[in-house]
Design a protein that fits this description.
alpha+beta, signal, three-stranded antiparallel β-sheet, SBP, Extracellular solute-binding protein, Bact_solute-bd_prot1
Length: 442
């Protein structure tokens, strides 16, 4: 999945005619059912032959290679012609294509930068309409993730593929040495709020002055922001980054200043060393941070655990996949997508690529409940499944990462240069307002 959000789509909106799909049966609309191969062959072939070719762009590890190849086995006569990009390059490719009025592929996976594409609904098939009729399967997915693919005017441009629920990762050995609880349920109870978490951080640092509870303030802000009821722009396009919920998230991060190690990214060598050396005891991160932690801190294998994050569940990342207006085989494409995102394939994608399921049936699959040696043989996914089901619906505006970055950069000044928090918050709001004015006041 992408861990870097897409830059703003600054091209002028193009006037496009809405795509109307052909009529037909929708017997395989349920993603947990295996579609019948006979239903998919030769429907709407572009060249009059029996073969249907669906084009697709994707990035490394967003979709399994073997899954793409299996489409032809499940749907004789149907082939996906996929073009692989790096995580960063696909963003630029989509930007360039939109700006130039070029042609997008039939199938388009999207990371959390789907928020940027919701402003171009006419570029996509509305999956609520026939022949897709996606309302029939809506209740099979976690609600908040489904809503991420909906436009403000109620169209659906994509089906959920995977999600990134957040929990707190913590080093149980460091907790034990400081006299703190070590079992996940006990830690969750003792650190259920940020106030409680900072109280625990104080105890840890009294017992071990060289150890910090958390990694850096930007991480705290992203976690706290994801627990708020709204982001910085509401569904009607109003600027709300100057309201109390953003102040609360910002000041929650500020309150954590005495308890952070420092830094500004989870990808730095310094961050990895702080975890591997036992300098940092905990951090809030998405489920896909499990392999990142293992790579960063191999010497701490068996010491880490996962529990509920202070303040509650959030989400970072996760992909969806849509059908663009260029697709001439909408019914076939939809059948392919519902098969690719069915329970069995989501569970297999978790096993192979670490893509956490978006289907409720996949989240409930016993195959997810396995012990992980790195986490002391804990069934870590138990807490990520719980988080996935607890997350509330949360509207992400276009270019949301730019707004977040304004606040994160100011927090970095508070963290490293002792900038006054009130001044930093005011500057962050002003910077966010300037971004808003460029985006919405054109």
């Amino acid at each position: 999945m992408l861990r870097k959000s897409m830059a703003a789509l600054l091209a002028a909106a193009m006037v496009m005619s809405a795509l109307t799909g052909c009529s037909g049966s929708n017997d395989s609309a349920d993603p947990v059912k295996e579609p019948q191969a006979s239903q998919s062959a030769s429907e709407g072939a572009k060249d009059g032959s029996d073969e249907v070719v669906l084009t697709m762009w994707y990035w490394k590890n967003s979709i399994r290679e073997d899954l793409i190849a299996q489409v032809s086995e499940q749907f004789p006569g149907v082939t996906i012609r996929a073009e692989l990009f790096s995580a960063d390059d696909i963003e630029e490719k989509i930007n360039t294509t939109i700006a130039s009025g070029g042609e997008l592929p039939d199938l388009l996976p999207m990371d959390d930068w789907i928020a940027n594409l919701l402003q171009y609904p006419d570029m996509f098939v509305d999956l609520y309409e026939a022949p897709c009729n996606a309302k029939e399967i809506e209740d099979q997915y976690v609600e908040w993730k489904w809503k991420r693919g909906e436009t403000v005017d109620g169209r659906l441009i994509a089906l959920p593929m995977d999600i990134g629920p957040t929990c707190m990762f913590y080093n149980a050995s460091l907790f034990e040495a400081a006299g703190l609880p070590t079992e996940p349920a006990d830690v969750a109870a003792a650190m259920s709020t940020w106030e409680d978490a900072y109280a625990a951080a104080g105890k840890l640092q009294e017992a071990a002055p060289d150890v910090k509870m958390f990694d850096f303030m930007g991480h705290l802000f992203v976690a706290a922001l994801g627990q708020q009821p709204q982001h910085m722009i509401d569904e009607e396009g109003n600027f709300i980054a100057d309201q109390d919920h953003i102040r609360q998230a910002f000041m929650t991060a500020v309150e954590g200043k005495p308890y952070v190690y420092g830094g500004d990214t989870e990808w730095s060598s310094e961050w990895a060393a702080s975890l591997n050396n036992g300098d940092v005891a905990a951090f809030v991160g998405a489920v896909w941070m499990k392999p990142e932690l293992q790579d960063a801190a191999p010497d701490t294998a068996g010491q880490w655990r996962v529990t509920t994050a202070p303040g509650g569940a959030g989400n970072v990342g996760g992909s969806s996949i849509g059908i663009t207006r260029n697709c001439k085989n909408v019914e076939t494409a939809y059948k392919v997508l519902t098969w690719m995102t069915n329970t069995e394939n989501q569970v297999e994608s978790l096993e192979q690529l670490g893509l956490f399921p978006s289907l409720i049936s996949a989240l409930d699959d016993p195959a997810l409940m396995y012990e992980e040696e790195f986490f002391g043989n804990q069934v870590a996914n138990e807490y990520f499944v719980k988080a996935a089901k607890d997350i509330k619906d949360y509207y992400y505006p276009p270019n949301y990462s730019s707004y977040q970055s304004a606040f994160e950069q100011q927090l970095l000044l508070v963290q490293d240069q002792d900038k006054d928090p009130e001044e930093a918050l005011a500057d962050a709001v002003n910077e966010a307002k300037q971004i808003y004015d460029l985006e919405y006041m054109k």
